[in-house]
Amino acid sequence: MADGYSQTTAEEYFNQGEAKSKDKDYAGAIIDYTRAVDLNPFVKEYLYSRGNAKSYLNDYRGAITDYTKAIEIDPKYLKAFYHRGLAKYKLKDYRGSIEDFSKAIELYPEYADIYYYRGIAEIKLGQEDSGCLDLSKAGELGYADAYKAIKKYCTPKGKK
């Protein structure tokens, strides 16, 4: 009881963090998620949610650390791979983001958003052919912005 919060359960702290996140109090949410993680460091959702809150505050490196720990707990945790890929993308680690998006696609091949972001990351690395294929797949799966990106990145210059 010396830590001042061990009488409250990890789940209660997690729920408080969820409520604060919903209210966009991400700094407050991180405090509660951290308390939940301190009490039970083996619950992937606690780490994942703390990673999301960190991402909202542009702490992408901190978010990546949390997503990575969640993936260590569950190596097939689709949401953690996807969001870790997004955080790496924000840090311009396009190779790293492509790896995470590829793993996410392997786990769930019908997730349009993943193809979109992997396609953009590939294009950023000069891999236009594979990037444009991914954007096309994202469009086929219903990601509307994929067609805008195809027009911007995949249409030959000079043609309209």
**The biggest beta sheet, please?**
none
The shape is elongated
- Which structural category fits the helices and strands? mainly alpha
Helix and strand pattern: HHHHHHHHH
State mean pLDDT (0 to 100 scale): 93
Please work out how many helical segments DSSP would assign: 9
Cα(first) to Cα(last) distance is 69 Å
Report low-confidence residues grouped into runs of 5 or more.
none
- Beta-strand portion reads under 5%
* SS elements, strand count: 0
Rg over CA atoms, rounded to whole Å, is: 18 Å
Which bin fits the share of residues in helices? Answer: over 70%
State the oligomer.
single chain
Explain how this protein is built.
With 160 residues, this protein is mainly alpha-helical. The protein is 72% helix and 0% strand. Helix 1 (10-22) packs parallel to helix 3. The protein starts with 9 loop residues before the first helix and ends in a 7-residue tail after the last helix.
Summarize the structure.
This protein has 160 residues and is mainly alpha-helical. The protein has nine helices and no strands. The chain is elongated, with a radius of gyration of 18 Å.
